[in-house]
């Protein structure tokens, strides 16, 4: 599948639908807070399974003892593509 970098207007329009996600340079990111460390690992595992299924892999950071930061960009394109926003929407459907 051919991917192209999105225009700034396309990025801003897409972010309107993902209100919990923020622009971070050439990526989008969101933080999740779990009730405990095991819950944070559960979030990571669920996102990992989903990401593997769609073959698009975010950067995932566990910090503190119960927080997870997910950062998505299309690394081989050097920025944001439609694939990034599709993955973010699928992550939102997990309803953490």
Keywords:
4 strands, alpha+beta, single chain, 96 residues, 3 helices
Characterization of this structure:
This protein is an alpha+beta fold. The chain has one domain (8-93): Gyrase A, domain 2 (2-Layer Sandwich). It has three helices and four strands. Strands 1-2-4-3 form a four-stranded antiparallel β-sheet, covered by helices on one side. The protein starts with 7 loop residues before the first helix and ends with a helix. 21% of the residues are buried.
Q: Tell how many strands the DSSP assignment holds.
A: 4
Beta-strand content:
15-25%
Q: Cα distance, first to last residue?
A: 29 Å
CATH C-level name? Alpha Beta
What do the pLDDT scores average to?
96
Q: Any idea how many domains?
A: 1
Instruction: Give the assembly state of these chains.
Output: single chain
What characterizes the major β-sheet? 4 strands, antiparallel
Helix content: 40-55%
Proper CATH architecture: 2-Layer Sandwich
Produce the secondary structure layout.
Elements: H1 8-17, E1 22-24, E2 27-33, H2 37-54, E3 59-63, E4 67-72, H3 82-93
Antiparallel strand pairs: 1-2, 2-4, 3-4
Summarize the model shown:
This protein has 96 residues and is α+β, with helices and mostly antiparallel strands. It has one domain (8-93): Gyrase A, domain 2, CATH 3.30.1360.20.
